[in-house]
């Protein structure tokens, strides 16, 4: 049956989740139940090698929604207290851009690309007509469904941003002491199709138990995504709506999240545009980045090209067979602690430069007792980061043999190093000029100046500096 002819204005439903990487059926994971995302993939363009701008939540999301790398958008670390990084200009958010063009803009669920503030404040700063954050996946889906119903009744073009917390790690009464798993109090583990343990982890009983939890969380998230997509159809909005599904970065496992190896930067990216024939049931293999998503959406909505963003529209890649980007760039500066590093990836090689000798890799499990162990840590113990890492992705896709320590690869290192340094200069990367301090540095210094009396005053000593605390988990 032929599709009805639809003309603009078109809508956008952008669904995102935490910490998924590409751990779903459309990317070959056969042991996880993702029927709704499988179905969406069959109706979409599946970008097989899409990468985040950063392997952690806030910087990657800020890049996704602004089309600008973290060095330029200002989010070099987490945005909730006590970390408190923020967009240099909140008006850079895509919601502002679409709202100024007459779109109704709404956000439901996770907002982690700008400072975590009250919903009405977030709405005003980022350009949303309405914001309702919080809630586990079923609550977020309920609110998204209600928002779609309101959009259908209004007849106004809309941008609806839906953020699911799952499959992020969630505290649970079922967790063993010192462990934060993936279940919370509302998810069951799922090993009904078996369990996939990624190649970069040692495969043992505890790893399989943790992966079963993760698979349960992904299955739960997929079900909620399906509810939202069904509501879009029920509202009669499917044919006029661009649907984007993605995540912020790789899985919350050692050597993935918080690392610049491919498992940390890889993301699922599905884009459905029913009113354009080329955007259905297609898989694209070129290197693409989260910073490409915003210009792609705007071109699909028939907006003129923007200036000031760093990505490229993927419409020519999909519809005209244009050449994909030669390089994909990654970066991390702060997460739990200062761990500055940058990377550049080509079709065949990856170069990572580490500006400090932090532990390799950072542990993103938020657990004192880690249940999964990278193979390299089991073999060699915890080491600090070498200054330079070079990997041949063709012969060594797991990025396990550092060629920077071996002879005969200087030409590859030089070529990628030149590309990386050129990009850092273009981004006005603060690491070029030295170490980067966090917002907490300024906050603590201001607190000290306030509470410590002048040294020439008679005093019994400085009062204790109140610690910066937060009830929010580290993302």
UniProtKB/TrEMBL annotation:
SUPFAM superfamilies: Alkaline phosphatase-like. Signal peptide: none annotated. GO terms for molecular function: metal ion binding; sulfuric ester hydrolase activity. Residues 11-301 form the Sulfatase N-terminal domain. It holds the Pfam family Sulfatase. CDD domains: SGSH. GO terms for cellular component: cytoplasm. Keywords: Hydrolase, Metal-binding. Residues 453-475 are annotated as: Disordered. This is Arylsulfatase A-like enzyme.
């Amino acid at each position: 049956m032929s599709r009805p002819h639809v003309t603009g204005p078109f809508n956008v439903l952008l669904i995102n989740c935490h910490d998924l990487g590409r751990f779903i059926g459309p990317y070959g994971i056969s042991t996880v139940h993702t029927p709704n995302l499988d179905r969406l993939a069959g109706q979409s363009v599946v970008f097989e090698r899409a990468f985040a701008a950063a392997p952690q939540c806030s910087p990657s999301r800020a890049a996704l929604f602004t089309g600008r790398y973290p060095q330029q958008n200002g989010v070099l670390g987490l945005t909730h207290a006590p970390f408190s990084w923020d967009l240099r200009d909140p008006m850079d958010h895509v919601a502002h851009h679409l709202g100024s063009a007459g779109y109704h803009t709404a956000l439901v669920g996770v907002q982690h690309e700008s400072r975590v503030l009250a919903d009405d404040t977030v709405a005003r700063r980022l350009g949303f007509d309405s914001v309702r954050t919080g809630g586990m996946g079923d609550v977020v889906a309920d609110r998204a469904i209600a928002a779609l119903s309101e959009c259908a009744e209004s007849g106004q073009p809309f941008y609806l941003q839906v953020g699911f917390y799952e499959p992020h790690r969630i505290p649970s009464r079922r967790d063993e002491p010192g462990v934060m798993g993936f279940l919370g109090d509302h998810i069951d583990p799922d090993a009904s199709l078996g369990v996939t343990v990624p190649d970069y982890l040692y495969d043992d009983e505890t790893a399989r138990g943790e992966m079963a939890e993760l698979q349960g969380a992904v299955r739960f998230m997929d079900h909620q995504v399906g509810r939202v997509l069904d509501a879009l159809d029920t509202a009669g909005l499917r044919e006029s709506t661009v649907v984007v599904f993605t995540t912020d970065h790789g899985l919350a496992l050692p050597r993935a999240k918080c690392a610049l190896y491919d498992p940390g930067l890889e993301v699922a990216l599905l884009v459905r545009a029913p009113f354009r024939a080329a955007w259905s049931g297609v898989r694209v293999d070129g290197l693409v980045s989260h910073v490409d998503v915003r210009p792609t959406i705007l071109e699909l909505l028939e907006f003129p090209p923007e200036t000031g963003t760093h990505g490229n529209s993927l419409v020519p890649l999909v519809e005209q067979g244009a050449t994909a980007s030669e390089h994909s760039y990654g970066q991390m500066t702060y997460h739990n602690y200062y761990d500055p590093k940058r990377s550049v990836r080509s079709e065949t090689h990856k170069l990572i430069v580490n500006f400090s000798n932090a532990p390799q890799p950072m542990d993103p499990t938020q657990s004192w007792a880690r249940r999964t162990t990278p193979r390299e840590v089991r073999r060699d113990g915890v080491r600090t980061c070498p200054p330079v890492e070079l990997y041949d992705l063709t012969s060594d896709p797991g990025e396990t043999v550092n060629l920077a320590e071996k002879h005969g690869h200087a030409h590859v290192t030089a070529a990628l190093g030149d590309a990386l340094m050129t990009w850092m200069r273009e981004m006005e990367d603060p690491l070029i000029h030295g170490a980067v301090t966090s917002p907490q540095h300024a906050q603590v210094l201001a607190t000290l100046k306030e509470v410590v009396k002048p040294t020439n005053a008679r005093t019994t000593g400085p009062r204790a500096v109140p610690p910066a605390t937060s009830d929010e988990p580290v993302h």
